[in-house]
Design goal:
Blueprint: H1 15-20, E1 31-38, E2 44-46, E3 54-57, H2 58-70, E4 75-81, H3 98-109, E5 114-119, E6 133-134, E7 137-138, H4 140-157, E8 161-164, H5 171-181, E9 188-195, H6 202-208, H7 228-240, E10 244-248, H8 254-263, E11 268-272, H9 274-285, H10 291-304, E12 309-312, H11 315-321
Parallel strand pairs: 1-3, 1-4, 1-12, 4-5, 5-8, 8-9, 9-10, 10-11, 11-12
Antiparallel strand pairs: 2-3, 6-7
The chain binds ligand PBG and zinc ion.
Zinc ion binds at residues 120, 122, 130, 165-166.
Length: 324
């Protein structure tokens, strides 16, 4: 049958009908809020390029974690910004480091909130790269031990999930074995498996003070034109012991997300990154788009493409306008 017997508009005529045929719904359960933590107390610094996003000291982070739980959001991902940086990123695995103390404090106050930690060296190295340098290059194998130690320190502080975002080869296996050997076999790994060398990380690097001092990350993060390679990355991370696979950024890579959803049985995460968030907020501030609708449309697209977990800086705003 076709037109005029078939009229697709019949089921779009009222909001009730539209609700009845809606295929995808965003839920609070899908959302994970990224949070930045800095040293000090009483700190709640706005991030200039990300309206509505702040860097919190641990005392205020704990208050924020309560708001997150009250909003019905199941999890947060923490990024630590240390006071001091050095060549090997010593702060990354310090037992009393900023993120380790933050995890401990948040879990003590909100034991039911799932705490994920970003595992990388770039916030902790003075050169801003995600690994150890040798002869001016980011050296893969020597970095693995640093990442494994970092993940274990987060797990020992109480993290439920560790999320390596460095893109070194073999890091998931190194982290799994460190966690298992270090008495943390129940801590899960969310692998930033298909992480692209993206222009959309700009605002994050301001917030985390992690812009590389020289060069760029194209030698370890993925080349944007490649999609099959992303499936290869994901398969390898799964084989190495990842529990959840992530695609990052989200909206420019919905094809990769959809392909990952079809191919793998584990949960798939997508990160709506800082630049995706900032673009919507900036255009909305200028009155050029309806920011709330654009955000909801973006997030439902990410879910429709297959994401089970959506990391978004808009999690709190979105949760506040979801029904129920
Ligand atoms: C650290 C890391 C980055 C992001 C998450 N973890 C930045 C980068 O790789 O340069 C980006 C998050 C965002 O842009 O919101 N490796
Ligand atoms: Zn990094």
């Amino acid at each position: 049958m076709s037109y005029p017997e078939t009229r697709m508009r019949r089921l779009r005529r009222s909001e009730s009908l539209r609700r009845m045929v809606r295929e995808t719904r965003l839920s609070r359960d899908d959302l994970i809020l990224p949070l930045f933590v800095v040293e000090g107390s009483g700190v709640r610094e706005p991030v200039a390029s990300m309206p509505g996003v702040f860097r919190f000291s641990i005392d205020l982070l704990v208050r924020e974690a309560k708001r997150v739980r009250d909003a019905g959001i199941p999890g947060v991902i923490l990024f630590g910004i240390p006071a001091e940086k050095d060549a090997r990123g010593s702060g990354a695995d310090a037992a009393n480091g900023v993120v380790q103390r933050a995890v401990d404090a948040v879990k003590a106050a909100e034991p039911d909130l799932c705490v994920i930690t970003d595992v990388c060296l770039c916030e902790y190295t003075d050169h801003g790269h995600c690994g150890i340098l040798e002869a001016g290059e980011v050296a893969n194998d020597p970095t693995l031990e640093r990442l494994a130690a970092t993940a274990l320190s987060h797990a020992r502080a109480g993290a439920d999930v560790v999320a390596p975002s460095d893109m070194m080869d073999g890091r998931v296996a190194a982290i799994r074995s460190a966690l298992d050997g270090g008495g943390c076999p129940d801590v899960a790994i969310l692998a930033y498996a298909a992480k692209y060398a993206s222009a959309y990380y700009g605002p994050f690097r301001d917030a985390a003070e992690s812009t590389p001092r020289f060069g760029d990350r194209r030698g370890y993060q993925m080349d944007p034109p490649n999609a099959r390679e992303a499936l290869c990355e994901m398969r390898l991370d799964l084989e190495e012991g990842a529990d959840v696979l992530m695609v990052k950024p989200a909206l420019p890579y919905l094809d990769v997300l959809a392909a990952a959803r079809r191919r793998f049985e584990v949960p798939i995460a997508a990160y709506q990154v800082s630049g995706e968030y900032a673009m919507i907020r900036a255009a909305a501030e200028r009155g050029w788009i309806d920011g709330e609708r654009a955000m909801d449309e973006s997030l439902v697209a990410i879910k429709r493409a297959g994401a089970d977990w959506i990391l978004t800086y808009a999690a709190m705003d979105v949760a506040a306008r979801l029904p129920g």
